[in-house]
Specification:
By secondary structure, this protein is of the alpha+beta class. It has helices at 2-19, 38-44, 48-51, 56-59, 65-78, 135-156, 166-181, 198-205, 207-223, 248-264, 292-308, and strands spanning 23-28, 33-36, 82-84, 110-118, 124-133, 189-195, 230-235, 238-243, 267-269, 272-274, 278-284, 314-316. A five-stranded antiparallel β-sheet has the order 2-1-5-4-3. It has a five-stranded mixed β-sheet with strand order 7-8-6-11-12, sandwiched between helices. It has a two-stranded antiparallel sheet with strand order 9-10. The longest helix has 22 residues, at 135-156.
C-alpha cells in the first residue's frame, strides 16, 4: 500500500514538473541534460528525449559558454545558488516571446536560478536551472521608464518652439554662473533676443501665423548653435542663448550671424510671405555680476538699447 502511495506521489510530482509554468533543467557536472521539462520543450522546440544526455551548449550554441560555465562551476564548488536577473542579462535561453504582439521585445525576458542538487551521500554532482518568464515585468518596467523619460523631456522643452523652456534655461544659467563664481574661469556669454514688432505680426496675420514665425526663428537659432550652447525660449517673442566658453566678441559674431540670417529669411505662411528682424543684447559674465539676475539684467539692458537704437541690431553690454 505504501509503495502504491509512493508511486502515486511520484507520478503527481513528475506531472507537476512537466506542466509547471517555469523552465526546469537538470545538468550533470559535464553540462549534459538529465531533465528537461515541458516548459523547456514548448519554448525551445526540443523534446525531452532529444535533449537528454546532450550538452546544453550543443542544444544552444549561441549561449556564452565561458560565462555560463563559470556560473555552473561556482555553484558546484561552493554549493550555493546563483541568481541571474533579467536586468543583468535579458535572457539565458533565446526563446521567442509568445506575447510578441503586445510586447516590446521579441525575446522572452528571464530570471534564472542555478541551484546545486545534493545527493543522498552529501555530494553535489548535478545542478538545477530554474527559468522564470518575466517578460511582462520587464516590458512594463521598460515602458514605464520610456514614459518617464518622455515626461522628463517634455518638462524641459517649450511645446511650441521645441527649444529649452524657461525653467530648464534658468537651471543652465545658474549652473554656469555657479561654476564661474567658484573660480572656474569662463568666458561665458548670455544673449537676449526679441523679435521686432512681433505684436504687429499677431495683429495683422493672427496668432497661428505668429506661432509659425516663432517656430522659424527658433529653427534658425538652433541651427546656428554649437554643441554645448543652450538655446531657449525666454517667454513670448523673447529668446535667450547661453554661450559657454565664449567671450563677448565671439558672442557678438554669433548674434550678428543669427540676426543676418533672420533678416534674410522669407517665412512662407498661409497668408503670404513674411519677413522679420530681431534685436539682440549680449553680455559676458564678469565679477560685477553677483547673481544670475544681474547677469540676465545686463543682457536685457543691452537688448533694450538695441531696441531703442533702431532695432535689427546687436548691442554689447560690455567690451
Amino acid at each position: 500500500m505504501n509503495q502504491q502511495a509512493d508511486m502515486t506521489e511520484l507520478h503527481w510530482l513528475f506531472d507537476m514538473l512537466q506542466h509547471i509554468d517555469v523552465g526546469l533543467v537538470v545538468l550533470n557536472n559535464r553540462y549534459e541534460v538529465e531533465l528537461w521539462n515541458g516548459f523547456m520543450e514548448n519554448h525551445s522546440g526540443v523534446s525531452s528525449s532529444n535533449a537528454r544526455t546532450k550538452s546544453l551548449f550543443s542544444i544552444f550554441p549561441t549561449i556564452n559558454q565561458d560565462w555560463l560555465k563559470q556560473k555552473l562551476d561556482n555553484v558546484l564548488a561552493l554549493r550555493t545558488p546563483i541568481y541571474v536577473s533579467w536586468e543583468q542579462r535579458p535572457y539565458l535561453f533565446p526563446f521567442k516571446s509568445y506575447r510578441s504582439i503586445t510586447s516590446l521585445s521579441e525575446k522572452m525576458f528571464q530570471n534564472v536560478v542555478i541551484r546545486p542538487i545534493n545527493n543522498a551521500n552529501g555530494t553535489v554532482t548535478h545542478l538545477c536551472l530554474v527559468v522564470y518568464d518575466v517578460t511582462d515585468v520587464a516590458t512594463n518596467k521598460a515602458a514605464l521608464s520610456s514614459a518617464n523619460r518622455k515626461l522628463d523631456q517634455l518638462s524641459k522643452i517649450d511645446g511650441l518652439t521645441e527649444l529649452n523652456n524657461r525653467s530648464s534655461l534658468d537651471r543652465a544659467i545658474k549652473v554656469t554662473f555657479d561654476s564661474f563664481a567658484k573660480g572656474n574661469a569662463g568666458p561665458h556669454s548670455l544673449v537676449m533676443a526679441d523679435i521686432d514688432f512681433f505684436k504687429k505680426v499677431n495683429d495683422t496675420y493672427g496668432h497661428p501665423i505668429g506661432d509659425q514665425v516663432l517656430q522659424e526663428v527658433a529653427k534658425i537659432l538652433s541651427s546656428g548653435s554649437r554643441k554645448g550652447d543652450f538655446v531657449g525660449r525666454f517667454g513670448g517673442e523673447e529668446f535667450c542663448v547661453l554661450l559657454p566658453n565664449t567671450g563677448i566678441n565671439g558672442a557678438y559674431q554669433y548674434c550678428e550671424k543669427m540676426r543676418s540670417e533672420i533678416e534674410q529669411a522669407v517665412i512662407k505662411t498661409g497668408k503670404g510671405e513674411i519677413k522679420i528682424t530681431i534685436s539682440m543684447g549680449v553680455c559676458e559674465i564678469d565679477e560685477s555680476h553677483k547673481t544670475t539676475a544681474q547677469w540676465l539684467e545686463a543682457a536685457d539692458s543691452a537688448l533694450y538699447k538695441a531696441k531703442e537704437g533702431g532695432r535689427n541690431q546687436t548691442v554689447k553690454a560690455n567690451g
